[in-house]
Specification:
Helix content is 30%, strand content 15%. It is an alpha/beta fold and 511 residues long. The protein starts with 14 loop residues before the first helix and ends in a 5-residue tail after the last helix.
Length: 511
Amino acid sequence: MRYVPAALMSDGPPRKIRGIVWIVLGAVLAISLVAYAVFTATRPAPAALQSPAKNVIYLLGDGMGRSHVTAARERYYGAEGRLVMESLPSHGSVSTYSVEKNSGQPGQAGFVPELVTASPAAATAFASGVKTYNAAIGVDAKGVVVPTIMELAKQAGYRTGNVSTAEVTDATPAGQMSHVLARGCQGPDYSADACQDTDVTGDKLPTSDVRVTPIADQIARNGTADVIFGGGMARFDAKDETALKEQGYSILGSVSSRIPATRADLNGASGEKVFGLFNTGNLTLEKAKKDNPDRPQAEEPSLQEMTQKAIELLDQEQSNGKGFYLQVEGALIDKRSHDNDAAQTLDEVKAFDDAVAAALDFAKRDGNTLVIVTADHETGGFNIIEKGSFTNAEAAGPPPNVDFGNSANSSTPTRNGGNFKDEERSTGIINGEGSEDPKNFGPATFRTPNDPADVKDGSKEASLWLSYASGNHTGADVPIYAYGPGAEQLQGSVDNTDLFDIVGQALRVLR
């Protein structure tokens, strides 16, 4: 019997009503799983692994395309250098397209592809193995609930963890722990506008249905992840904190009092279940923390530190002898790419690569851990252009972010209600300099280790010239890197839905 995700009504119903809710949810999920089984029986899966892994660490750089990786390598290590992720032995690429609402799956009747995905659809593809529409999480394009690999791992006895620099209710972390028709259904309160989608369901669903239950409520009650680190404290309320404590979670900081956890809280954390949110919204950019060491935001841990602690907490000897499944997201690569902010985008790619280093160090010591590094999609049409050339030379500003479904992309991190500006833009030379009406959107330019010592960022002498083609996602394939048992399956080209099969087989929860 497969693991069934729980979701309770947001107003905290009494025990008797909760029992009715469970019956309704059980019926919905049973029907959903039958439909899912029919689909997975007909979809071809990758060849079986020769040697399954004990642990899987799945790291995702949100919005990180091939040029993001190349530009970060050249920025920090020079033309002959390598990021840690590039040192992994298996390299490949991932196709990322999604589908329209009510579409059939690839190879089925009524299949209607959407060539440019969004994070919810991409997260559902690699977490559940199905294509869905761009706002959906944990349901297929017709609104049918599908199980996630983290749910299946949890049911099979594995320890589970979910780490992100975004709000933990955002698409990528939520894709492993929840099932909603619309990504905006995050919480803390239910909203029909944010949660219902009658284009998919026809009639409005009852609020007891998991698909219209706010993501925060689902996370706080279903116990899918044993260790949860990230942002998004404002999405949770006192009832959520109570629900977490009733399941045995150690809470870092205070959800009910809106007191974010700190690096010191993280370092002191222990136990089998730990819940730590370090910002009311998304976590703070690394550059902003470095430039403002006296601000409260500087107390937030890095993605590398959260990854190291999550591995430490998950790598505990269990009586069933199983290992763990950990997902780690570097979310701010995407959010700064939406704003065409090359300087902070590069910093966030470097911070994500540091987290990859932590995972790889553990995997090499452990000897039985599969590490996968990839992205959900590319953001911004990020390009490395020839020194001295220009793109968008007539533009007065960067292309707009049209990802209207995710207001968090351009949010300013806050702590206890206090605004903290982090909007220092990328450096770059001015297009049309010397004219009566110079344009202010030129390429961002950066020195690299190969440049002479006197070359400065933002100068025309700097060798790394970067530009964007868009303020939104693109349909480009994304890179994938792997190390450990099963890594050989990730050489060459795969689809994002294949990652569900590969991880599931590595953990022996799929056949």
